[in-house]
Each structure stands twice: as structure tokens, then as C-alpha cells.
Amino acid sequence: MLSYARKLCKIVLNPQYIFSKTEYLFIFSHMRSRSTLLSHVLGTHPEICGYRELHHSYRNRVSLFKMRSRIAEELQCNIQNKYLLDKLLHNKLLFSENILKKVKPKIIFLLREPESTIKSIMNMGYITGTEWYKDPLKAADYYCSRLLKLEEYSKQMEGNYFFINSNDIIEDSENILDSLTDWLNLKEPLKKEYSIFPHTGKAGHGDPSQNIRSGIIKKTESYPEIEIPSDILRQATISYLACKNSLLRGSVN
């Protein structure tokens, strides 16, 4: 409770956190979707502040003030007239429908096909030592339940979002970045090159692999040595196709 009171006091004593004119940009996705890569590309742009997962829910306007203060302090940036960026990858983090209706943030849905996703989660388990990541069944259960939640969110938004197929970030970068530039009404185009930030490559803040430290969009490994049982992959594929079709129907692009 004291910690919460201190955070609230900090917000009140820094009126720029409350009164700065900002817009909000969120990536709704799942683990190993290349969301870290996309958020770094976006966060490098001078009109966008934020590059990683902040790990908190958005229940009301106070949640947004906390987001403002956290990004402004961590990046030492002026948030006036900027997009503030966060990403949500887990069902335990809530996003209020009330915020969607009143604040009308820009939402990007990012989806990656199941085989690459599950293999990447498992590989991350070997890197970080997180045991459940290594289990294909648990990784697939996380993936499928997250996709159901993404479908639920998309129906609340009535088509006011941008959908990205994760592979297109690699294989069709220019078109994706040009389309995002137009959709966000940015004065300068988004670029393939991106900055390295304080938490880039650190476990718990996004992609912990060496690839994210390259500073440019590039193709990643496919992990052919990792195997997924066919029945698990089949069920994950069904969930993926259902979610993808649902998201495509409502996307602005």
C-alpha cells in the first residue's frame, strides 16, 4: 500500500505526467511473436516513447498516468505530443474495455504461426531456464489460451485496429512499416534500423537472445532440432487459423 501511495504521490507532484498531451499505442500479442523487434522499431521513432513490456494492467486512467510516469522516467523523454507504447502478451494482464472506449488508443494485433512460436518459446526455456517453456504442451496451452483472449479483445474494438502477420515484419518490412507510418500519421517514416535501449536483450523485458541486439530487422533461426508432437501442433494450428481469420475481418489494413 505504501508503495502504491508513493507512486501516486509522484504522479501528483509531476503534473506533466497528467497534463501532457499524448496518445497511446499498444501491441496485443503473445510471447515469441517478434513483438520485441516491432516495439524496438516503433520505440526508436522520435514520435513514440516506449520499447518494452511494462508488465501492468490497464484498468482506468490512473493506470495510464502510471504508464506516463514510468516511460518518462525510464527513458528521460518529453512525452508531450508523443505516442506512449506498451505491449501485452499475457492473459493475467487486464485491459479495460472502458479505456478502449474513452481513450481510443491505437492497437496493433501481432500474430505468429504456431510451429515457429512454440519452438521459440521452448528455445527460450533453454536460454532462461524457465521449465514450463521447455514443455511443448504447456507452451501450446499458453499460445492457444492467449489467442482466444486476443479474439475477445478484437471483438470489443469493432475493427479499429491494425493487424500484422509476424512473418511480414521480416519478409515484407518496407510495406508493413510504410503502412504503420501512414496509420499512425507519423511525420517521418519508420525504419528497419532501431536503437538499443537500457533493457534490450535482458530476460523479463522481451527477447533475451543476441538477435535483438543487432539493431536491424533480420531473419531469425527456425530451430529445426526442436520437435513438437503432431497432435499438439494440430490443435495449435486450429486456434491460430481461427484467431487469424477473426483478426483479419476487423483490421483496418
For the terminal residues, how far apart are their CA atoms?
44 Å
Tally of separate domains: 1
Q: Tell me the number of strands.
A: 5
Q: How would you classify the helix and strand content by structural class?
A: alpha/beta
Explain what you see.
The chain has 253 residues and is of the alpha/beta class. It has one domain (12-250): Rossmann fold, CATH 3.40.50.300. The protein contains eleven helices and five strands, in the order H-H-E-H-E-H-E-H-E-H-H-H-E-H-H-H. It has a five-stranded parallel β-sheet, with helices on both faces. Helix 4 links the parallel strand 2 and strand 3. Helix 8 (136-157) runs parallel beside helix 11. The relative contact order is 0.17. The mean pLDDT is 91.
Task: Summarize this structure as a short list of keywords or feature phrases.
alpha/beta, five-stranded parallel β-sheet, about 250 residues, Rossmann fold, 11 helices, about 50% helix
